[in-house]
Amino acid sequence: MTTTTPLEQILNLTRTLGQPQNEYVIVGEGNTSYRIDADTFLIKASGQGMSSIDASGFVAVRFEPILALFEQQTADRAALQQAMIDAKVDASTPGRPSVEVTFHAMLLHGCNVKVIAHTHPVAVNSLLCSTRANLPTIAYSPMKQCCAAALGVRALRRSRLTAGRRYP
């Protein structure tokens, strides 16, 4: 049995999800993260394509400063980006954590899961982006219920703040 490191595991998962023939991602979109321990996790760096990512495409991040963002009443985009940079385990590591780092931190920490992988599948996007799509404002999901229970509804609502956009 071959033992692999957390970085190797998340790298393999990310590349597999990013393979074009799978149609799980459009233009490399999606993110993956891996909880290293109680204090830190790896996340795909912003701007990295999933199919061709290498080890330098991941950033190790500390949970504490990212989760602290949920307690702030407001933060502008520049402050959020600086907080993401400041949360890096090694400041000299190239790259910036994905803009969805707060969402990944919340799920990894609050729901006690080891790996998060989310994609934007072609089939799902085709349906949801259709002019015939009719979606409720807030959809039920087991993950949403888990996070609401773990972190409170207020934190869940705040997780929908991404790159300065507010989602209904």
Describe what this molecule looks like in 3D.
The longest helix is centred in the N-terminal third of the chain and has 13 residues. The protein is globular. It is built from seven helices and six strands, in the order H-E-E-E-H-H-H-E-H-H-H-E-E. The C terminus is likely disordered. By secondary structure, it is α+β, with helices and mostly antiparallel strands. It has a single domain, classed as Class II aldolase/adducin N-terminal domain (L-fuculose-1-phosphate Aldolase), CATH 3.40.225.
Summarize this structure as a short list of keywords or feature phrases:
6 strands; two-stranded antiparallel ribbon; four-stranded antiparallel sheet; single chain; 7 helices; 168 residues; alpha+beta; L-fuculose-1-phosphate Aldolase
Total of domains: 1
Based on Cα principal axes, name the global outline.
globular
Report the portion of residues in β strands.
Answer: 5-15%
Category by helix and strand content: alpha+beta
Order of helices and strands: HEEEHHHEHHHEE
CATH topology: L-fuculose-1-phosphate Aldolase
Distance between the termini: 47 Å
